[in-house]
RNA sequence: GCGCUGGUAGUGUAGUGGUUAUCACUGGAGCUUGCCAAGCUCCAAACCCGGGUUCAAUUCCCGGUCAGCGCACCA
């Protein structure tokens, strides 16, 4: 079986069994959008539940749920309006499209920003022609990868964008969240949809225009990490550092000590990511963490490690990124919103500081500067203003204000300082849930020859991750057996199990159907059951059967499902 | 976005300018069947969308769309 054939089979199975399928099929479909069907919805939810268990329960992070549409200002601040843009130029002759910055870079010209005139001017001045046909290049166009929308009835009202990541919803709530957390470090998580208007999404469910991400923003004190890595010190991960050209297996502690991973929080979260992925059933040997090359990094990141999963079809695919965003986001929003975003960190003991404070004499300044004087007062309070040659110099807009000696005085004060303002740094683990789901499906897929020469297709999910917990069959479609089977079905539902009842076709066919769906257990009711109250429990992986008393059945299955959580 | 190739039941396919579009698997009803896709009967289910040419288009032409591949893109 080639890799392509295997992939085709998996997609085929996923569609047939109701894991996922293309959206809008009724109207011809649209690239980059996929629906989750009944089984896919459940497994996606189970992945998210497990993710939340890791981050909200175990790490103790706060959860938020913010709008998918954000005001344009949010993305002005975040840099997405500016940087989440490609400048495209099209050949007038052959209609081939290029990224203008790439054409310029090829000539060694570095250009930043999104000023179209600048691009067109440079292209013209350097006489850049179409690399394919030599034709003349047309006007430059801006292509932003965010979906734009307008808010409210009036089209000119306020412009908004569908978020390309959930992170901004956390950053802009920083002040409220930091008050709730009360101490650094703290983390905030959000799961939700994000949107990117990909130019040409391919690769099925791997590249989507609307997708689900699970993100944690961990706010840390840049001067004092306050993190113990004891829990993960000896945990071994597969690292692919930027300056190596190979993978290394190494403990977290070694990776930190040898400065392979600079940031302790990043290192810690690499371990958590590895634990999470293996927990839901991705084989450890198919996971690695690859450090981004310098030019590969997003505009906000100073370091980034991708969690990658080895797939048969697509090779190593990125399923999570663990980025060191520094203080980029909080500073940007601080500037854009004109609000200070910081945490006040008290000293152990207040310290006394002698300070020279400029005291303006408003009796003079007031009449002299009239309506500008309130602004002057405000600026002086902020500590702006330089004393040069005995005069006080101050800038208001473009204007230089000079306040003569005598219109102000300098006083020495003793000030008690109780702490300092800190702009936290952010480490962000960000997971692409759809890709994880695909990887899980692919790595769970196997075909096994049976004794009779047939092949059986199995999705070998861990029992607790399987969409259907248990199937119940009457051995034969006889009235008594069907009745008993429905009783058993109801009993199992009372254990909060998702039960699938099936009395159609031969018993073997029904087992096959459940193997394809990944159902770990099948319960069969036969005529003996009516006498001894025992049922046959059949295990998906071993196909072994065991007789269990109906009164023990619920707990028996619960135990097996629980056990599957700790198996590798 | 560009180029090439393709699009027929849920899936995989055959075929056609003209009556009721082939087959298999799957699915459903029943018979049979005492634990791993058995057998029999019956049933359901499709020509990607729009326009053109034509008496007549699923078939030919054009456009769109989706898919695969190549280029480009993937912060």
UniProtKB/TrEMBL annotation:
Keywords: Aminoacyl-tRNA synthetase, ATP-binding, Cytoplasm, Ligase, Nucleotide-binding, Protein biosynthesis. It comes from the Archaea. GO terms for cellular component: cytoplasm. Residues 8-449 form the Aminoacyl-transfer RNA synthetases class-II family profile domain. One of its GO terms (biological process) is glycyl-tRNA aminoacylation. GO terms for molecular function: ATP binding; glycine-tRNA ligase activity. The keyword Oxidoreductase does not apply. The keyword rRNA processing does not apply. Its EC number is 6.1.1.14. InterPro entries: aa-tRNA-synt_IIb, aa-tRNA-synth_II, aa-tRNA-synth_II/BPL/LPL, Anticodon-bd, Anticodon-bd_dom_sf, Gly-tRNA_synthase/POLG2, GlyRS-like_core, tRNA-synt_gly. Pfam families: HGTP_anticodon, tRNA-synt_2b. PROSITE patterns: AA_TRNA_LIGASE_II. Belongs to the class-II aminoacyl-tRNA synthetase family. PANTHER family: GLYCINE--TRNA LIGASE, GLYCYL-TRNA SYNTHETASE/DNA POLYMERASE SUBUNIT GAMMA-2. This is glycine--tRNA ligase.
């Amino acid at each position: 079986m080639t890799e392509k054939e295997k992939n085709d089979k998996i997609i085929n199975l996923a569609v047939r069994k109701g894991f996922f399928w293309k959206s809008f099929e009724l109207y011809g479909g649209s690239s980059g959008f996929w629906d989750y069907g009944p089984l896919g919805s459940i497994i996606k939810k189970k992945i998210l539940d497990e993710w939340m268990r890791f981050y909200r329960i175990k790490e103790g992070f706060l959860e938020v749920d913010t709008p998918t549409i954000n005001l344009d200002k949010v993305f002005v601040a975040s840099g997405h309006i500016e940087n989440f843009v490609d400048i495209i130029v099209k050949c007038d002759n052959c209609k081939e499209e290029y990224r203008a910055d790439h054409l310029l870079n090829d000539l060694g010209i570095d250009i930043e920003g999104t000023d179209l005139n600048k691009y067109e001017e440079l292209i013209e001045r350097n006489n850049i022609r179409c690399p394919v046909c030599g034709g003349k290049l047309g006007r430059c166009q801006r292509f932003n990868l965010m979906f734009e929308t307008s808010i409210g009835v009036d089209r000119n009202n306020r412009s908004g964008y569908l978020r390309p990541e959930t992170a901004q919803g956390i950053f802009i709530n920083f002040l409220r969240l930091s008050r709730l957390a009360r101490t650094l470090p703290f983390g905030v998580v959000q799961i939700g949809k994000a949107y990117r208007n990909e130019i040409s999404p391919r690769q099925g469910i791997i590249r989507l225009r609307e997708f689900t991400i699970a993100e944690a923003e961990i706010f840390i004190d840049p001067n004092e990490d306050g993190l113990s890595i004891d829990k993960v010190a000896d945990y071994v991960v597969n690292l692919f550092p930027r300056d190596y050209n190979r993978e290394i297996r190494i403990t977290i502690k070694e990776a930190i000590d040898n400065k392979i991973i600079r940031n302790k929080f990043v290192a810690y979260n690499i371990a958590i990511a590895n634990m999470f992925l293996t927990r839901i059933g991705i084989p450890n040997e198919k996971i690695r963490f690859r450090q981004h090359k310098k030019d590969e990094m997003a505009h906000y990141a100073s370091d980034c490690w991708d969690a990658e999963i080895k797939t048969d079809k697509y090779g190593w695919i990125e399923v999570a990124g663990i980025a060191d965003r520094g203080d980029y986001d909080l500073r940007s929003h601080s500037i854009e919103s004109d609000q200070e975003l910081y945490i006040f960190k008290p000293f152990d003991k207040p310290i006394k500081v002698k300070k020279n404070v400029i005291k303006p004499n408003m009796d003079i300044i007031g009449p002299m500067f009239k309506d500008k004087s309130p602004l002057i007062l405000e600026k002086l309070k902020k500590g702006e203003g330089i004393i040069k040659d005995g005069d006080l110099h101050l800038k208001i807009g473009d204007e230089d204000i000079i306040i003569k000696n005598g219109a102000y005085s300098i006083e020495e004060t003793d000030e008690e300082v109780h702490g300092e303002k800190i702009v936290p740094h952010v480490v962000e683990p960000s997971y692409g849930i759809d890709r994880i789901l695909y990887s899980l499906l692919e790595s769970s897929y196997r075909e096994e020859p049976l004794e009779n020469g047939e092949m059986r297709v199995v999705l070998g999910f861990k029992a607790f991750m399987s969409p259907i917990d248990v199937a119940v069959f009457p051995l034969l479609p006889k009235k008594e057996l069907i009745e008993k089977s429905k009783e058993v079905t109801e009993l199992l539902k009372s254990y909060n199990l998702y039960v699938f009842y099936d009395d159609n076709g031969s018993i073997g066919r029904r087992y096959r159907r459940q193997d394809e769906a990944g159902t770990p257990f099948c319960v069969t009711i036969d005529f003996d059951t009516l006498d001894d109250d025992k049922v046959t429990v059949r295990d998906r992986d071993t196909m072994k059967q065991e007789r269990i008393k109906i009164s023990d059945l619920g707990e028996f299955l619960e135990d097996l499902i629980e056990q599957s959580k700790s198996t590798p």
